[in-house]
Specification:
The protein is 73% helix and 0% strand. The protein has helices at residues 2-21, 30-50, 55-58, 69-89, 95-106, 108-114, 120-139, 143-147, 156-180.
Length: 184
């Protein structure tokens, strides 16, 4: 029983630190600002995990069904880009956007063949550009808009929560791959 009590205390202390860190980002409405704070924190953790890794780690393929770290970072950028057009323009990717982002968005065999051969900085720079646009677009909105439903029935808040949740899931995957990649 003591072991579980100690674990609970450690978890509560850890989560209380997170709760104190989640606060509205200045220059945004309160709910959007809190979401931005969380999105930026998560992106920073993903970036810290991969910054400076070598090309052999960036392109490491654990098995024939997995994804490379570079492809996963592109996937995070593509997911954020598709939610930009869904949330701010109320549409899916057009043909040009699908050509640019479709492979990274879907991953799979095509991504394993095509998304490789670049240093990690290449993928992080792309994600930085996408995030810069997200921050700029969200700055033009308020919490009333954030709670409004999109055409698919979900509200904007849920959509951006999903982006964050998606990034958290892939952060775990990236860390797992890094632990098995050569040179780490």
């Amino acid at each position: 029983m003591k072991r579980y009590t100690l674990l609970l205390i450690v978890l509560l202390i850890g989560f209380s630190g997170l709760a104190q860190k989640i606060k509205p980002q200045e220059g945004y409405s309160p709910q959007i600002g809190a979401m931005i704070n969380m999105l930026e924190d998560l992106k920073g953790r993903v970036t810290r995990n991969v910054r400076g890794i070598g090309d052999n780690q960036t392109d490491f393929l654990w098995d024939q069904e997995s994804n490379r770290i570079g492809a996963l970072i592109m996937h995070l950028a593509a997911t954020e880009a598709v939610y930009q057009v869904l949330s701010f323009e109320g549409r899916q990717f057009n043909e040009e956007e699908n050509l640019k982002w479709g492979t990274a968005l879907r991953l799979g065999d095509k991504a394993r063949k095509e998304i490789k051969g670049k240093p990690i900085a290449y993928y992080l720079d792309i994600w930085d550009e996408v995030r810069k646009k997200t921050l700029s677009l969200l700055k033009t909105k308020d919490d009333t808009w954030f709670s409004e439903n999109m055409s698919m029935g979900m509200n904007h808040h849920w959509a951006w929560f999903h982006v964050m949740e998606h990034q958290a899931n892939h952060m775990g995957q990236i860390v797992m791959i890094l632990k098995r990649a050569p040179g780490k």
